[in-house]
UniProtKB/TrEMBL annotation:
NCBIfam families: 2a38. One of its GO terms (cellular component) is plasma membrane. It comes from candidate division WOR-1 bacterium RIFOXYB2_FULL_36_35. This is Trk family potassium uptake protein. One of its GO terms (molecular function) is potassium:chloride symporter activity. Keywords: Cell membrane, Ion transport, Membrane, Potassium, Potassium transport, Transmembrane, Transmembrane helix, Transport. It is a multi-pass membrane protein. It is found in: Cell membrane. The keyword Phosphoprotein does not apply.
Length: 442
């Protein structure tokens, strides 16, 4: 059964590769050398950390910058990089380095992992991806290093710069400041805010869009949809967050107008799967929490380093609803008809995501009785969207609660549809066509 899946099912390979990487990372993080005090880390906490890093989420049960040694941090950042770009991308890059020819089965797996249109594009896309990754992360790390060197020193400044550049580009949300405060110490720092958000956006829009931008060619429908939706969500999120929180003395209230706008912009960008925060999430008003949950659920874009149902899925669903309300036959975006299979796939992804979120929250209410439903909903959506934002309950989850959140992170990273397809190999489409009959709805 498994051998058959390995031969014919790319989705199963993707799921299996993530699972193996997580277990390997968890084993390394349990070693005494990974701890700053030289003691072994509990397996459940090491597994949670490895899962969160590989799934580029950022939810933590340990104080990352305090608990882990340099070796442990290298393991975490390696998991983030591999998880952000996927194991399949890395393995293909190794093949190219050693000039090994890829078989068609391997190209099919890469096509599935990268969400690209044709197997013929695989090699060129992988080369572009690594060129973009090294360039963008390198520039981000350099700017952050120049900012942090004077205050943190050479060694710590370099560690902070590289770690946060990779974490931001891969939309991971892991941060090193002590006390699990994430980037709160840099709430009013213009350089840190702009560099981190820029890395998040570039990593989140996807490599297909980045390639279109670099080539300065006519945008495909995919790129147009991603760019428009991303700008729209960031702009609306910024305005709404400022409107909701401007008088909250625990968040924006004590900041100047320009600082309020910057913090609002930061917290409009970061819920789209990045997970960094410069303000205390648990101090947000309910309206801001609900806005953040929505942004986390939507997530990044296909082919990027983030999770969620994706910006394109969100756009197709809204466009389909609009077309239905207007009595139109087809879903149209930028004067182009969207294929029915794509529309159906979008609704399936959204419904599966909603079912996962509802099921996880329902399960957690049995084991996390001391926590509010809103905080559990926030935690689950953050895990599914591979975001990493939290209302502060992650370190206090029960063992069962941690397992539920780990499953949400894993499913959110590989995708609920990919996970189902991984175990539905061999299913054949029936040729039989049944008669039509209507059902009353609405």
């Amino acid at each position: 059964m498994i051998s058959d899946m390995l031969k014919v099912n790319p989705s199963f390979i993707i799921v299996l590769s993530f699972f193996i990487i997580i277990l390997t990372g968890a084993f390394l993080l349990t070693l005494p050398i990974s701890s700053s005090i030289g003691s072994s880390t509990k397996f459940i906490d090491a597994l949670f950390t490895a899962n969160s890093a590989t799934c580029v989420t950022g939810l933590v049960v340990l104080d990352t910058g305090v608990h882990f040694s340099l070796f442990g941090l290298v393991v975490i950042i390696s998991l983030i990089q591999i998880g952000g770009l996927s194991y399949m991308t890395f393995s293909t890059f190794i093949f190219l380095l050693f000039r090994r020819k890829m078989f068609i089965s391997e190209k099919l797996m890469m096509q599935e992992a990268l969400n690209i249109y044709s197997t013929r594009e695989v090699v060129s896309v992988v080369k572009k991806i690594f060129a973009i990754v090294f360039l963008v992360e390198g520039i981000g790390a350099l700017i952050l290093f120049l900012r942090w060197w004077p205050s943190l020193g050479l060694k710590k400044g370099l560690l902070y710069a590289v770690f946060h550049s990779v974490s931001a580009f891969c939309n991971a949300g892991f941060a090193l400041p002590a006390g699990n405060v994430n980037l709160a110490p840099y709430c009013t720092d213009v350089v840190v805010n702009l560099v981190i958000t820029s890395l998040i956006i570039i990593g989140g829009i996807g490599f297909i869009v980045i390639s279109d931008i670099l080539k300065n060619r006519r945008f495909s429908l995919h790129s147009k949809t991603v760019v428009f939706t991303t700008i729209f969500l960031i702009a609306v999120g910024t305005l709404l967050f400022y409107f909701f929180e401007q008088n909250n003395s625990s968040t924006l209230g004590s900041l100047t107008f320009s600082q309020k706008i910057m913090a609002s912009y930061f917290h409009s960008v970061t819920p789209r799967t990045a997970g960094f925060n410069t303000l205390s999430i648990d101090k947000f008003y309910v309206q801001s929490l609900l806005l953040t949950i929505l942004l986390m659920f939507i997530g990044a874009s296909p082919g990027g380093t983030g999770g969620g149902i994706k910006t394109t899925t969100f756009s197709i669903i809204l466009s389909t609803i609009w077309a239905t309300l207007k009595g139109l036959k087809d879903t149209v975006i930028f004067e182009r008809r969207i294929p029915f299979q794509t529309v159906r796939r979008s609704f399936v992804i959204a419904v599966l995501a909603l079912l996962l979120v509802c099921s996880a929250v329902f399960a957690l209410t049995f084991f996390e009785k001391d926590k509010t439903v809103l905080s559990l909903l926030f935690e689950v959506v953050s895990a599914f969207g591979t975001v990493g934002l939290s209302m502060g309950i992650t370190p206090y989850l029960t063992t069962v609660g941690k397992i539920v959140i780990m499953l949400c992170m894993f499913i959110g990273r590989v995708g609920p549809l990919t996970l189902l397809l991984a175990f539905l190999t061999g299913q054949k489409e029936h040729k039989l066509e049944y008669p039509k009959e209507g059902i009353s709805i609405g």
